[in-house]
Predict the 3D structure of the following.
Amino acid sequence: QVQLVESGGGLVQAGGSLRLSCAASGRTVSNYDMGWFRQAPGKEREFVATITSGGSTNYADSVKGRFTISRDAAKHTMYLQMNSLKPEDTAVYSCNAYYGRNNYWGQGTQVTVSS
């Protein structure tokens, strides 16, 4: 089993920045692809960004150029640097780790961007 714990969410004004962290424990995730997803009130969960075990990244068009996903294998942690935040980025952000049939989710961290 893999446990994922997110941190770093909070309240920020539009134009501000936050850095989310996703700490993995229980089993090494070095071979796992990982990603960030978000769910706003009344909306379905949506893809934000992913990073493969090899470090390749992919972003949703809505965050491209503003968000940066990264991972530190030694710390078993994934990050999401979020810059130029907009009110429409307000959501619960959850991290995900997947490898084959194994698919794990964290509990999520709230990000609120005020206008």
